[in-house]
Amino acid sequence: MPYPSDRETDRPWVMRTYAGHSSAAASNALYRRNLAKGQTGLSVAFDLPTQTGYDPDDELAKGEVGKVGVPISHIGDMRQLFEGIPLADANTSMTINAPAMWLLALYVAVAEEQGADRKQLAGTTQNDIVKEYLSRGTYAFPPEPSLRLATDLVTWTVTNVPRWNPINICPYHLQEAGATPVQEIAYSLATAIAVLDTVRDSGQVPPAAFGNVVARISFFVNAGLRFVEEMCKMRAFVALWEEITRDRYGIEDPKQRRFRYGVQVNSLGLTEAQPENNVQRIVLEMLAVTLSRDARARSLQLPAWNEALGLPRPWDQQWALRMQQVLAYETDLLEYEDLFAGSTVIEAKVDELVTGAREEIQRVLDMGGSVAAVESGYMKGQLVSSLAERRRQIESGDLTVVGLNKFDTTEPSPLQAEGAKAIETVDPAVERAAIESIERWRSSRDNAAVQHALDGLRDAAKTDANLMEATLACARAGVTTGEWAGVLRAVFGEYRAPTGVSVATGGGEAAEELAEVRERVRATGEEMGTRLRMLVGKPGLDGHSNGAEQVAVRARDAGFEVIYQGIRLTPSQIVAAAVQEGVHVVGLSVLSGSHLEVVPAVVEGLRAAGADDVPVIVGGIIPPEDEPILRERGVAAVFTPKDYALTEIMSRIVTLIRERNGLAP
């Protein structure tokens, strides 16, 4: 049935698929196919070395190249990524934070090579560095200089690329790290306040033009399964952003005060167990951000049903895109005004969220703002505690997850039938090819021009000058991602964010079960003449530390002495810490697909150090076919998201320690 001609319809949101892997050439082919299927915007996923500012041949990049996104090491890669895609007509979202300035410089340089005017370019750089210290872990520099880079990018784009969204404040990852709706609203808006205050105080934007800065701030939001509450959360965001921009910054133009947001619906709630249930989860989450016209997302990307298993295939991403298209083009959703206006139930819930978030924002501001609340560990500790409580509810059954802790009987899935390739895999040859490619690039460029550009960047970084023009000069000269970030690391210094584990509460686990495991830990330590010690490690560049933090909290509460140094460690660093601390078990967490490279390296390192009696266990997104390979290479146990009972896992770890040390079971 066609839309009635006498009713004004809302326009569909921008439809994206978060995509990229293996190489610029492979990702370019994927983007072209997606655009041909009706996708209306591009969303670029970068691999972890690119996200954290390393080249493919760096030691930390081993096993990570091309796994969770596309490697972009220099302007040649960026040219290839967008070959045949006119950037003047594109709307491109780039999920990039610490090196956001660098990737936008490469994008602008390639667009200008295509003949595009900067002022034509439309899209978004995520560029939200604060949440990287709290949840995602792809920071490269300390908080203060990181905020400076974000500020420089914001101020430069407002003048030079006025249609670009230079920062995408990102509560998405906060929810994945355990944030309640109140925490999600409060911490992301506190970040926006920190950015706007810094831009205002930098003097780089005239007061009369500050409304243009506010107008280009956008948000990237998560939508969970409690879709009524999630929809109310979006209305609360709208109300508080209106209040902040009007009262704190004096923005008079209602269009500049508009809350502009895009969405990736929740990947945290997707399950490895009965993954076909993820389809209806994704659809319900999509409704949370589309049903309410007054708080409707302006861009939307959906995960694929099998993201809890590994990297989705093109067909899986097509399925997710078709979900959006059915809702936008087959239903009558866009024909109506807001469906919830005047609802007393909705208004009460929105008021509750607004009040709670307003109080938490003020608490953060009283600490000195979001940077201070990051450095003190306050916000991270709050998130770790919230996620611990969520896990407790799942383990106790207070929170039902269909197919995981309830209704878990199942028929064999034809989607995962024997012989079916249920996920995309990245050939290890991709990493070797990327290393060879960057070696050729370095040998063929004008290295004198590269050094001159890097010297200019270094000199500018030591002042308070805006770093965007120096970064553009580096992009055009052929500087690599690792070289650009390396210069800034040398000036700004390195940083390791607080883990939040030491201040987190354990979520009130079932006392009887935990007490039994605690007694086993105590008794085993007594038999061995020492307190049991566990090292929890995050090898490689995978910054998704939520699982590792929850394991560390539960191990601590079970009586282990826990050594957890945070993210981004080489296998050799993990081995050195394990030997130095005399640990009795090493637990590794890997979600990026690099487990076959980094985990055996730890096992082999312990063996070489004479500590082969220390069992190594691994948890994360690990395909079933990889488990026997890991066991053959010395891994004692493998846990995946279906293994949600952490206290039971602690008991199994005690059993492993007893076996390795010749004690009775």
UniProtKB/TrEMBL annotation:
<feature type="domain" description="B12-binding">
    <location>
        <begin position="531"/>
        <end position="660"/>
    </location>
</feature>
<dbReference type="InterPro" id="IPR006099">
    <property type="entry name" value="MeMalonylCoA_mutase_a/b_cat"/>
</dbReference>
<keyword id="KW-0413">Isomerase</keyword>
<comment type="subunit">
    <text>Heterodimer of an alpha and a beta chain.</text>
</comment>
<dbReference type="InterPro" id="IPR006158">
    <property type="entry name" value="Cobalamin-bd"/>
</dbReference>
<comment type="similarity">
    <text>Belongs to the methylmalonyl-CoA mutase family.</text>
</comment>
<dbReference type="InterPro" id="IPR036724">
    <property type="entry name" value="Cobalamin-bd_sf"/>
</dbReference>
<keyword id="KW-0846">Cobalamin</keyword>
<dbReference type="Pfam" id="PF02310">
    <property type="entry name" value="B12-binding"/>
</dbReference>
<dbReference type="InterPro" id="IPR016176">
    <property type="entry name" value="Cbl-dep_enz_cat"/>
</dbReference>
<protein>
    <submittedName>
        <fullName>Protein meaA</fullName>
    </submittedName>
</protein>
<keyword id="KW-0479">Metal-binding</keyword>
<dbReference type="InterPro" id="IPR006098">
    <property type="entry name" value="MMCoA_mutase_a_cat"/>
</dbReference>
<keyword id="KW-0170">Cobalt</keyword>
<dbReference type="Pfam" id="PF01642">
    <property type="entry name" value="MM_CoA_mutase"/>
</dbReference>
<dbReference type="InterPro" id="IPR006159">
    <property type="entry name" value="Acid_CoA_mut_C"/>
</dbReference>
